[in-house]
Amino acid sequence: MCDFIEDQTAEFKEAFQLFDRTHDGKILYSQCGNVMRALGQNPTNAEVLKVQGNPKSDEMNVKMLDFEHFLPMLQIVAKNKDQGTDEDYVEGLPVFDKEGNGVVMGAEIRHILVTLGQKMTEDEVEMGVAGHEDSNDCISYEELVRMPPRLASFPASLSVPVPS
């Protein structure tokens, strides 16, 4: 079925189970990308939708996915060599760094993530930036995209179009 070794598959299943809120061996389609990102992959939302068969948006919080169906999707994503790296996400952010010191105003990061690229909800953004602002309400964007996958979808959402 998949090219993963037994130890990897066990690790993947353990992570999958962490997202299984109802403890029935299934996750929502909307959680699939987050599980993949928690496992070190970095697919875009579009890539996740593609491997899921492009479900309708109203199905994302209704359709369920078991581990046996998730694993082949993870394999497809893992084989994709075009996934963005941390450096890709950091690359566009200096445009918003007015003083060139590696930080951007927290309000500006929030605005970018809610309005550009793979838009996030305000709640998702708040979860992602919580604890990252300094005393001047600034955020180190390099630290932000390198943070652990506490909010697994957060770094992927930093792939925003950069104004010229």
Computed structural class: mainly alpha
By CATH, the architecture of the largest domain is named Orthogonal Bundle
Tell me the radius of gyration: 17 Å
Kindly state the percentage of residues in helix: 40-55%
What would the CATH topology of the largest domain be?
A: Recoverin, domain 1
As a percent range, the share of strand residues is: 5-15%
What is the CATH level 1 assignment of the largest domain? Mainly Alpha
Average pLDDT over all residues: 80
Count of discrete structural domains: 2
Give helix and strand order, one letter per element, not per position: HEHHEHHEHHEHH
CATH homologous superfamily label of the largest domain: EF-hand
Q: Major beta sheet, specifics?
A: 2 strands, antiparallel
Please give the alpha-carbon distance between the first and last residues. 46 Å
Q: What is the topology, as strand order, of the major beta sheet?
A: 1-2
Protein name: EF-hand domain-containing protein
InterPro entries: CALM/Myosin/TropC-like, EF-hand-dom_pair, EF_hand_dom
Domain EF-hand: 7-42
GO molecular function: calcium ion binding; structural constituent of muscle
Question: Can you put this structure into words, describing what you see?
Answer:
The chain is mainly alpha-helical and 164 residues long. The chain folds into two domains: 6-79, EF-hand (Recoverin, domain 1, Orthogonal Bundle); 86-157, Recoverin, domain 1, CATH 1.10.238.10. The protein has nine helices and four strands, in the order αβααβααβααβαα. The longest helix has 14 residues, at 6-19. Residues 149-164 have low confidence and may be disordered. One of its GO terms (cellular component) is myosin II complex. Residues 7-42 form the EF-hand domain.
